[in-house]
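Title: Prediction job returns without error message
Component: structure pipeline
Severity: low
Priority: P3
Assignee: unassigned

Description:
Job completed but the reporter wants confirmation the result is attached to the right record. Sequence as submitted:
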Amino acid sequence: MCTGRASACSRAERLGLLLGLLLTAPSLLAATARYRCEAVYLPARSTWVRNVEIEHDARRVVALRIDGVPVHSFAVDGTVLRTALDNERILLDTASGRWQSDFRGLAQAQGRCDRE
């Protein structure tokens, strides 16, 4: 039996404890939600498919990627994510499946997002 001191535990006992922690606390493990967004950009009237990956645990969003590019700063307000990438300000509402973005007033986009 392991007494809690690292030196008193065998390697098998430590691995068993670690495995037990992982199995009893699955909410601590991160999961990834993937969205496929079709956004119509105006004034060009072109449709772009944007892929969004939201990595989260049970309590918070831990990482966000758009088209495979990691976004370093984002804000979460309920089901709404706000961020910016390459001068594009992006708003993604995961509850309604809505994409909105703006290129500093030069072009705007709106579209829908479907969870994959």
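Comment from assignee: result matches the submitted record. Residues 27-115 form one domain.
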